[in-house]
TrEMBL record:
One of its GO terms (molecular function) is oxidoreductase activity, acting on the aldehyde or oxo group of donors, NAD or NADP as acceptor. Residues 36-481 form the Aldehyde dehydrogenase domain. This is Acyl-CoA reductase. It comes from the Bacteria. InterPro entries: Ald_DH/histidinol_DH, Ald_DH_C, Ald_DH_CS_CYS, Ald_DH_N, Aldehyde_DH_dom, Aldehyde_DH_Superfamily. Transmembrane segments: none annotated. Belongs to the aldehyde dehydrogenase family. Keywords: Oxidoreductase. It comes from Pedobacter soli. PROSITE patterns: ALDEHYDE_DEHYDR_CYS (PS00070).
């Protein structure tokens, strides 16, 4: 168990004697009263007072751009991040285990998440070195010599999601930091403890007040931070509803930069000339990896009516091969879900689909045991159902039959989401006829492969309500900074 009794603010590990949030794993254990979530620790529930102090520390460290961190050379900032990363790597085992216990991700995938995050940090450092090299070049026009550089934006409020509590958090936190901004960082509710072993590394690697952590109930502590008007950048991977509510609280919302990764309802389109085996295997990966709890997951499948029965048969057979189990077991695909109310919500989606004429077509689909939910393939889904519109973020594969390719295109046009789509086809003419209409609806079109974020050097964003700003290595460095110029006019007196 990890019982965290301190938090990082203004360069110090502050002891906490107030109330604590008990953390329970999605992994259940047998008790005399039946299966119960295992207690794995606790963390501080800070109040507005502590979060305001942390905010003031970040504001003071930035000091309107005059602070030590925002004025430090790029090389020195990189050295601090490298130093942090070395210390972070020493904590790999404990952090990976905490990812596993806190959110039920398989141990193998938790280790992958850690390694991917470290690779991302090193890629970020390399990208910043390139940007910095470019800024040592001068542009000369009309007697004016200009040095183009990238400058920080100020104080960043950074909040990550539960599904990639380390990786997704750090893909905003690290670029924000390395560009010279100062930070307030609130870990996700499911996925707080795993950040605890890294606090000392933050404290000892960066100047005082540059990284501050806040804990507790988001709806208690975050609104005050936004209302203060002292946050320059809001970065959040989560729901568009929360992001919109928070943005509205800022007194000068037009001066707030928002870098957001939000809701998505990615579709797979399986055309009549698709390689069905490939479409099935990619749909399984795309819709059920980490129990479907990925913003990039395939959350609705359009299949040409002529292939629908064969597709469903093969999809069910593949789903049956997936291994259920505890996250530490080898080769496990499906694990317990961390969100308390998720099994009930998924059941409700399935009941709603049934009430409108669809069925779960695979054996045991939708069955639950405490925090486990067996994947459900639901068919035929139509526009009256919740599963047609809502982002289920769980192990349900809604399948819609179609006759004309206009139908999935119309679905995407009408959708409030615009992250990704996957097309499965072996017909080059069909693929090219789809690319333009689809790339104008979503920010990534995948051909004959699942939807996903990686490779992490690719831009990661979304249209409509799915995102604001762009992440991934170089784009994130741009997102958390502004292009500025130092322009000198050559006159007789300064020519030399
Ligand atoms: O939840 C959204 C993640 O960025 C997804 O990343 O596609 O690599 O699983 P992934």
């Amino acid at each position: 168990e990890i019982n965290q009794k301190e938090f990082l603010s203004n360069g110090e590990m502050k002891p906490w004697n107030g109330p604590f949030n008990e953390v329970f794993s999605p992994v259940c254990i047998k008790t005399p009263e039946g299966l119960k979530r295992k207690r794995i620790g606790s963390f501080p529930v800070c109040t507005e007072k502590e979060s305001t102090e942390a905010l003031d520390a970040a504001v003071a460290a930035y000091d309107n751009g005059r602070g030590q961190w925002p004025t430090m050379s790029v090389a020195d900032r990189i050295a601090c991040v490298e130093n942090f990363t070395h210390k972070m790597i020493e904590q790999k085992e404990i952090v990976a285990k905490l990812i596993m216990w806190e959110i039920g991700k398989s141990y193998a995938d938790s280790v992958k998440e850690f390694d991917r995050t470290v690779e991302y940090i090193y890629a970020t450092i390399d990208a910043l070195k390139d940007i910095d090299r470019q800024s040592s070049r001068f542009e000369i026009e009309q007697g004016i010599v200009a040095q183009v550089r990238r400058s920080p934006l100020g104080v960043v409020l950074c909040m990550g999601p539960f599904n990639y509590p380390l990786n997704e958090t750090f893909t905003t936190l690290i670029p924000a930091l390395i560009m010279g901004n100062t930070l307030l960082f609130k870990p996700p509710k499911h996925g707080t403890l795993l950040h605890y072993p890294l606090l000392e590394a933050f404290r000892s690697s960066f100047p005082k007040g540059v990284v501050n952590t806040i804990y507790g109930r988001g709806n208690t502590i975050v609104p005050g931070l936004m209302k203060s008007g002292k946050i320059n950048v809001l970065t959040l991977i989560g729901s568009s509803k929360v992001a919109n509510e928070l943005k509205k609280l800022h007194p000068k919302v037009n001066r707030l930069r928002a870098i957001l990764g939000l809701d998505a309802k990615n579709a797979a389109i399986i055309t009549k000339d698709a390689d069905l085996d490939l479409a099935v295997s990619e749909t399984v990966l795309g819709s059920l990896s980490f129990n479907g709890q990925r913003c990039t997951a395939i959350k609705i499948v359009y299949v040409h009516r002529s292939l629908a029965q064969e597709f469903l048969k093969r999809l069910s057979a593949e789903v049956e091969k997936l291994k259920f189990g505890m996250p530490w077991e080898k080769g496990v695909n499906l694990t317990p879900l961390p969100e308390l109310n998720k099994p009930e919500y998924l059941r409700d989606c399935i009941d709603d689909a049934a009430a409108h004429g669809a069925k779960v077509i695979n054996k045991n689909g939708g069955q639950t045991l405490e925090t486990f939910v067996y994947p459900a393939i639901v068919y035929p889904v139509n526009s009256n159902m919740k599963l047609y519109r809502e982002e289920q973020f769980g192990p349900i594969v809604p399948v819609v039959p179609f006759d004309d390719l206009e139908e999935p295109i119309e679905y995407l046009i009408g959708s409030p989401h615009g992250q990704q789509v996957s097309i499965f086809s072996n017909n080059a003419a069909v693929i090219s006829s789809l690319i333009d209409p689809l790339v104008n609806q979503v920010s990534r079109v995948n051909i004959n492969c699942q939807c996903q974020r990686g490779p992490d050097v690719f831009p990661f964003t979304g249209r409509k309500d799915s995102a604001e700003g762009t992440l991934s290595v170089v784009d994130a460095l741009r997102s958390f900074s502004i292009r500025s110029l130092v322009a000198t006019k050559f006159t007789d007196s300064n020519k030399k």
